[in-house]
Amino acid sequence: MSYQLPQLPYDFSALEPVISGKIMEIHYTKHHQAYVTNLNAALEKYHAAEKNNDIAAMIALQQAIKFNGGGHVNHSIFWTNLAPVSKGGGHPPKGELLKALDAQFGSFDSFKEKMTAMTVAIQGSGWGWLGFDKANKKFVLITCANQDPLSTQGFVPLLGIDVWEHAYYLQYMNVRADYVKNIWNIINWENVAERFRA
Questions:
Q1: pTM, whole model, 2 decimals?
Q2: What's the CA dihedral at 24, 36, 83, 181 to 10 degrees?
Q3: How far apart are CA 39 and CA 34, in angstroms?
Q4: DSSP reduced 3-state for 104
Q5: Residues 149, 191, 39, CA angle at the centre, nearest 5°?
Q6: Is 178 exposed, middle or buried (0-12, 13-18, 19+ CB in 10 A)?
Q7: Dist. CA 4–CA 116, nearest whole Å
Q8: Mean of the pLDDT values across residues 143-159?
Q9: In the chain, which end has fewer C-beta atoms inside a 10 angstrom radius, N or C?
Q10: Is residue 1 predicted with pLDDT exceeding 80?
Q11: 42-64, pLDDT tens digit by residue?
Q12: Which residues pair with 64 in a beta bridge?
């Protein structure tokens, strides 16, 4: 079985002016595609090593599987976490999700401030996540380096913000804070709520 790029739920230019069509096209067709291609190649080598009982090769492939698999998983969530304004992007959450965010963080605005500050402050490449800790029935705000998936820490990913430079540099240059501030205008809270309900 090989992995494929998921279908984007909107056109490349649909998230403008927050994210330019050019960034979306490069991000999806070059970066995400590379994670998928490299994951499939690493898994193929892994299965061959497994067949040959070559444990050293299997161990050596773990990092490539984690990095590229994480890149595929993270981006697959990220695309659905976003939506054009005309399709609900940026409309604030409601219902159970909003009640739960208010209860834990004091207010929706307070939650946004915390997640924004944490995500902007990531050193180097990585992701800012709103996750859910099922064991303790509460939200977690966590940063992950590189393409490390949140699920490997035992949390359910609800909302991820990609702060690799390829996600914003063509448009925002080195001002990551403006990108993170603006991305709230296209967050698909209905998608986040579906993840929360599930």
A1: 0.95
A2: -60
A3: 8
A4: helix
A5: 30
A6: middle
A7: 31
A8: 96
A9: N
A10: no
A11: 999 999 999 999 999 999 999 99
A12: none
